[in-house]
Here is the input.
Amino acid sequence: MLAILTPSGNLVAPSPLEPDVVRRLYRAMVFARTYDRKGTALQKQGRLATYASFEGQEAAQVGSAAALEPEDWMVASYRDAAAMWMQGYPLELLFAGRTGDERGGSPPAHVPVLPPSITVGGHMVHAVGLAWAARLRGERRVAITYFGDGATSEGDFHEAMNFAAVFNTPCVFFCQNNGWAISLPREEQTKSETIAQKAIAYGMPGVQVDGNDLLAVYAATEEALARARANEGPTLIEAVTYRIGPHTTADDPARYRAGTLTDEWRQRDPLERVRLFLSERELWTAEWQEEIEAAAASEIDRAIGLAEEMVPLGPGDVFASMYADLPRHLRLQQAENMAGWG
Amino acid sequence: MTVRNIAQAINDALDLALGKDEAVVVFGEDVGRTGGVFRVTDGLREQYGAERVIDSPVAESGIVGVGFGMAVGGLRPVLELQFMGFSYPAYDQIINHVARIRNRSRHRFSAPLVIRIPYGGGIGAAEHHSESMEAIYTHIPGLKVLVPSTPYDAKGLLLAAIEDPDPVVYLEPIRLYRAVKEDVPDEWYTLPIGAARVEREGDDVTLITWGAMTKETRQAADLLADEDISAEVIDLRSLVPLDLETLVESVGRTGRAVVIHEAPRTSGFGGEVVASVQEECLFSLASPILRVTGWDTVFPLKRSEHHYLPSASRIAAAARRTLES
Ligand SMILES: Cc1ncc(C[n+]2csc(CCOP(=O)(O)OP(=O)(O)O)c2C)c(N)n1
Here is the structure.
């Protein structure tokens, strides 16, 4: 398993990033954690629909997304808000989607990120097609797709991996193995010893990396992206991490896993080791921590405000985006819905 | 008798079936350890073991395809697909294998399995979690399709489905899981598959529906009663086979009908009901049969659900319209 930064903050291999960049990414991880905790809190207040926490997976998402170019395609899942935000997805739209507003799925034109996939597994093939399109159009950009350990059991995972290798499409498969698919532990999801080893069967490299190690995740992703850009084909990355929270706010993990396991993983927290690394180099202080947490909280509050203050969608909006041009029968249904029935 | 909601009634039926017949297995994502995302299979794994209440990897095509093999091989699988929006990866297995094997093999093989699918909106769920696509299953020859809307029916129909020699798609209305409670017998009982239930008698107009929309339809009948319009409410319970006899008797008498469903209108099962009824009683009709349905759109997210789901007032308005002619 590729590792660079140990849980106690020591380097076991050279850092791929300058300390000031590490500091910037630490700040992004703090931001991500603040966002995530706020998401759970808002759901409890009834202000968001079901929320899927990614606590514990910040390094996997921030470290991988940090290696992307701004024009690279990203196709991610419901648990990948931090990665999407890193790639330019506006915070207020992430929140809007979670409040149950379709406009949350509509990022600005320059953001190459698809709305998060709610179906498990269906989106990985899309990255293959996006990457392929980029190559045929002579673009330098590549595609990355994020998914969980559970998603590797879906037939579409197999098809995506096979197509990508057969057609040598410039894409990266980024699996966050967080130990669980709702209540199913990773060992019962697949008998493969690692998820990375599945790559061998398809004829592409597979890399297992400590997913709580920001630097290792960055290094692995950077290398995979470089291969893709050099037209050397796709790579599967398995980031080994842990879902600290419940599957979603509707889930109760006490029904299927021991709290001690979660406590063990808390000891391998992805933020803490970077904090130690920075502290060692006099790049971290308690005041700065407070400052970045406060800045994150206020930026997040601003985004929530924007999401909640969006003019509510009306009865006509259900129809508005179904086709480029609304066919007659839908125009009639739309008129009926807007007129009401007393 | 025990007071049960729909989730509990289904749990009770599964409990009885697992207890009675060694061949019954429950198979699906998260059905074991955590008792299903709706807790419908709660406690069954503790009682019957992980060999018979099986947590599946995340793979719907696999669940149904393997379930098919189990059924042909002599088991009685009760499969769960977590939400209707996630049943689609299994569609090929259902349409090409499960529903055809009896005919393909001229009765030599059959696939007596049940596919339980929670369906429908109204709980502010995430995308793909509110689907009401029953017509994609009713359109498949070789399947039976059931939709209970009460705890009593839920138990009796599920036990009937498990006993049935053919594959049954059993749809569970999500927003009713815990909304209705009633006395449910503790013992084994079955209800006939293919029999509708007249939920409320009336003379002026027949309101035909199923699943979660029974609630809004009942409310509409109340609104109409305030105006001295007497509406008969029929809960189909079984879409395939369809109890045309009960429908024809009712519409033949009232001369007016409205079919109500949550699913999109175009190619919805309502079209099938309207066509079948008018074939039998065109000359008793005083007015065209109307449909009140979901729109031909994607089911919206939480903040717009109320712009989509047919309301009692919309149903009542349609019923009034049939009375105008
Ligand atoms: C096709 C499909 N089947 C089932 C579900 C229900 N479901 C949502 S998340 C999930 C588990 C996915 O686990 P994993 O891929 O490991 O990702 P994680 O949630 O752990 O991030 C399941 C079964 C779904 N969303 N889509």
Q: What stands out?
A: The longest strand of chain A covers residues 171-177.
